[in-house]
Amino acid sequence: MPRTSPLDGLRFAFGTLTVFPVRVTRWDREAARGGMLCAPLAGLAVGAAAAAVGLVLLFLGASGPLAAVATVAVPAALTRGLHLDGLADTADGLGSGKPAEDALRIMKQSDIGPFGVITLVLTLLAQVAALAQAYDASWARGACAAVVSATVARLALTLAARAGVPAARPEGLGAAVAGVVPVRGALLAGVAVTGAAAAVAAVFGPYDVARTSLAVLLSLAAAEALLRHCTRRFGGITGDVFGGLAETAATTALVVLSLG
Questions:
Q1: Helix (H) / strand (E) containing 199
Q2: Which of 50, 100, 141, 150 has its Cβ near the most Cβ atoms within 10 Å?
Q3: What does each C-alpha distance from 242 to 11, 161, 174, 253 come to in angstroms?
Q4: CA 126 from chain center: how many Å?
Q5: Partners of 167 in the beta sheet?
Q6: Tens of pLDDT along 160-211?
Q7: What one-character-per-residue DSSP string does 84-98 give?
Q8: Of 190, 169, 152, whose CA–CA distance to 240 is shortest?
Q9: Model confidence over 37-74: pLDDT tens digits?
Q10: Is there a contact between 22 and 14 (Cβ–Cβ < 8 Å)?
Q11: What gap in Å lies between CA 246 and CA 43, rounded to an integer?
């Protein structure tokens, strides 16, 4: 097998987690490891694009809520709605109350159930409301919140792909990336993202450094709680669960950043 290069990991991350025109040249465990370690970089790109759209609308005279809606729409568009779809499917699987095999079958169906609809609506409303409040505080805070939340959302995927977390199915994205990231690598990625987010927030003052750091940590804690629950219920992770983790982390980060 040819030696894995950092570009293989970047291609894997951007090719599987975004719609950016990147061709995945390798689809093996080594490339998946690099890809999941690079997942926060894909989130950074998505968040920057989302913030740019929101700022353009603000500078053109749009209101904070309208800019927030556009900012939330960009990540959905840049992921083909896969994370939102995964969130809805995960909610339907968990809400069904059925055994793991039946719940996984429900999650694979193309339709969306009541639990999925309710979860999607409430999640998107929370994201828009939190971003609107951030934009009302200042355009810079809103942009920062958009970037941090998108980056942390993909960081949650890095941590979920760590060694020791099994796949619920033998096929699919969940099986391809389950357990590929060494625990040490996942922790280092978490420290790096938290430190970078705090450094960016330093331009607003010490309080924002603390709040941003807390937002990252609480979003990861929320994603970890969901990961553990899904692992118990389904026997492991799936691509849908990854989507649910990303949206859970993003929403938690935005809510925390809107407080105070």
A1: helix 183-201
A2: 150
A3: 18, 9, 7, 17
A4: 15
A5: 237
A6: 999 999 998 888 777 889 999 999 999 999 999 999 999 999 999 999 999 9
A7: HHHHHHHHHHHHH--
A8: 169
A9: 999 999 999 999 999 999 999 999 999 999 999 999 99
A10: yes
A11: 10
